[in-house]
Amino acid sequence: MKAESIAADIKRRIAQGALTPGDKVPSTRGLAREWNVALATAAKALTTLAQEGVITSVPRVGYTVAGPARDRPPTPSDLTRERIVRVAIDIADTEGLAALSMRGVASRAGAATMSLYRHVASKEDLVVLMADAAYGEAGYPDDPPDGWRARLELSARTMWALCRRHPWLPHVTALTRPLVVPNLMRHAEFVLAALDGYGLDTLTRHNLHVLLYNYVQGVAVHLERGTQQEAASGLDEEEWMDAQGPGLAAIAASGAYPHFVAVTAGLGEDYDMDLDAFFEFGLTPLLDGMARVIERST
Fold it and tell me: Where is the HTH tetR-type domain positioned along the sequence (predicted)?
């Protein structure tokens, strides 16, 4: 019943003029938070509205209120692999990779689910295409900065920015099962080229490249994870920390963890884990360590 209530409320807002053609409809996460429901329930409400033609999907924007004829769903000839990938990326960006389904992509694209398979073999293949497209959104200058360190800093920050834009990206593949797609290889090529000419053996050069990639991926994986946990628990970061109060008080009272208690107290009540700042903090000692490896080889 909740999904029907959410859909009815959005229709009411449209009827009353609070939402007009072209306006962005609240996202799945926004509706889940507003109505205190699961993401699946909010997604069902939006899917129903899309199927009824009340709202339509706009790549890189999300759902918007359906407007005049120019906003009509695409005909089969309009459906291309590129459009499917962009719609899928939009879903993953706004709702998370777990919310991605071929049916959901088809609904947002205004197409039949089976029509997608003329362009994409499976959901797994679609995710690979999405990752390739996402990694291709940023590249490197023809005249890069001098020195391996400046180039690795540039690569790390470029990859971080992509993960910031697409929080699902670090979840696509495991380190032991590398994703072999052209646009990711361009990032690898840039780093490996930056490490050339310093007397590094092949294995060390490879490991330094993987270490940098894994550092970015390891921090970025928490971008989407935090949002998922917030949606599942219904608690924002401040509320979640408040809920940990009794447990932290018990730890402090036990006397068994004096250093943890001292550091936690020193951070103060206003401390908030800023992943961007933490990424920058960690990048410096990582590159310092790499410098020692490179210095031993030259």
Answer: 78-138
